[in-house]
TrEMBL record:
InterPro entries: Cyt_P450, Cyt_P450_CS, Cyt_P450_sf, Insect_CytP450_Detox. Gene3D superfamilies: Cytochrome P450 (1.10.630.10). It is found in: Endoplasmic reticulum membrane; Microsome membrane. One of its GO terms (cellular component) is endoplasmic reticulum membrane. Belongs to the cytochrome P450 family. Pfam families: p450 (PF00067). Its cofactor is heme. The keyword Electron transport does not apply. Keywords: Endoplasmic reticulum, Heme, Iron, Membrane, Metal-binding, Microsome, Monooxygenase, Oxidoreductase. It comes from the Eukaryota. This is Cytochrome P450. One of its GO terms (molecular function) is monooxygenase activity.
Length: 63
């Protein structure tokens, strides 16, 4: 755990979460994100988690 747990956890926890949230919002606000057309989608629908084993490719288009 990067920030620890319990009464003596990291004092920067809230700042780290806030910065991550602000960064993600900035990306989602300024870019249109789509799955790359060249990526084959080998998803197995029988899996509990439908994430590909080798990840996937995204395209970012500035709005």
């Amino acid at each position: 755990m990067p920030f620890g747990d319990g009464p003596r956890n990291c004092i920067g926890l809230r700042l780290g979460v806030l910065q991550t949230t602000v960064g993600l919002i900035a990306i989602l606000r300024n870019y249109e994100i789509t799955v790359n057309a060249s990526w084959p989608s080998p998803l197995d629908p029988r899996n509990v988690f439908t994430s590909p084993p080798a990840g996937f490719l995204l395209d970012f288009k500035k709005i």
